[in-house]
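B., you asked whether I could sanity-check this one before it goes into the benchmark set. Here's the sequence:
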Amino acid sequence: MNAYQPAAAEHAFILFDVLRAHERLAELPAMAEHADNGLLTQVIEEAGKFVGAVIAPLNREGDEVGAQWKDGAVTMPPGFRDAYQAFWQAGWPSLACATEHGGQGLPTVVEAVLHEMLNAANHGFTMAPGLLHGAYECLRHHGSEALQARYLEKLATGEWLATMCLTEPHAGSDLGLVRTKAVPLADGRYALSGTKIFISGGEHDLSDNIVHLVLARLPDAPPGPKGLSLFLVPKLDEDGSDGRRAGPPQARPAPSGGSEPHEVGSVGVRTRVHCERIEEKMGIHASPTCVLRFDEAAAHIVGEPGKGLYAMCVMMNAARLLVGLQGIGLLDAAWQKANAYAQERRQMRAPGSASRSGEADLIALHPAIQRILLTQRAWIDAGRAIAYRTALELDTQKHHPDASRREAAARWCSLVTPVLKSAWTEQAFTGASACLQVFGGHGYVREWGIEQHVRDARVAMIYEGTNEIQAIDLLVRKTLPDGGAALQALLAELGHGLHDPRAVEALARFGDFVREALPANSAHTAQADLPYQLADDFLRALALLLMAWAWERIAAAAAANAHTHAAHQAFWRWVWPEFEMRMAIMGTTLVTPPA
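And here's what the prediction gave me:
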């Protein structure tokens, strides 16, 4: 099947007609010059052209060939290095970075649109630059002047790529168990030793250097998460004066599509960071998921000792929004394939058709197929509206002159980001599976490409904090401690945009539940585990309320343009009823807690 193609007009409709992004940006002095929907539309259109022409065609071969590991080096699939070099040299990684660091200073929401397109086109490829902006923000806020001078522009432009090294074989979700050690050196640096696993892009030949941001523990650090510090370890270091090096610069084979060998030592001395292997995975074969061993690697501390998680949170929060966008993009890519197939595949006459003449036997006319496709469309478009609104709130949080607006924006981002990450990555997997169903037996065959989306999408439910952790974060960490005050403020904000009586009544019920049922039950020590039992259902119920808000906005914008949106009714018929189920589960659990 043909590769994914971005539809810039659909992104622009959500951004400008639904969210009125240009009006929101005009309120921000730092963004006012970009509050021009003509300019932003042009950027989105050019992004779509680049992604469709350069990145999307590599997706299938990237899956089939995969990243290849040999003797500690990783060679990316054919065409990937050339594509990445074209990507960063064209300025795409630097869209939302500050101009003083080599960026373009554009709104965060434009970067969000780009990353949705990239993930839809080629999830494996996009894993490489996916952490760049988070690493940039982390270093920008917590790095020393010397580190910023050396690395900030390289990360802002994407010339060098970055990793986030948290997980260890025994320490996944519980980072307090991290054992990697950092021992001070005489020159102010640290010798870092330990093993990290599941490191996306830990080794590759896309960029001339890789900047690793690593959680580790100083010798006198207390146990648990408060004892963690953050360190920067480059793959290649300009300063090799401490003698800690893995040997002389090594030549590796010419990258795919290149003609000259890529010298490992072309940027500096190779540090003692070893890629011991890459994982054989269910999906995203083009993304090398590495086991990295740090063998007294020379490292630089980022931020204050013992505040590594605080510094790393900047990176993790940015990554979680991008993973939510992964879910939306992957679902859109699966939908595109299924919709195209349904418009061509002929089988039995559709119910209600008088004959087999004309197009009456296209499976796109069958109610079962229409339900699958419209349901996924309902998730895609609502997800875009919520994700793009979240990206706009990130800019508002940074730049709005009114402190109360900055506070409201921070509240939105804090509460909505885990919902996006969890609900839309789950829908990417279940929805891609539903799109595979449209193909029948052909969907299970690799030739048609839809099965890759199912495999690729599954990982997004796991990394950057599993979906269960996102739900716990929303309910246990962000709702219960303040008695639900922040969430009630968010619900009140949503209420201003809801008019459909179904949504208005549901919003009131959910608010009552937050205000009355949760505090009354969670206060009992014997039922202290109840919030953890309810967290998934709680998050899903809020996701559906956000979708109701989004669909009222989308339907109104479509009507203003004399259009109707077929997926609007699909949302109310086939998606919305889940709200009643989630509320019923929570009510039953509170009344009769598990023995």
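One thing to flag: The longest helix spans residues 403-438. Otherwise nothing jumped out at me.
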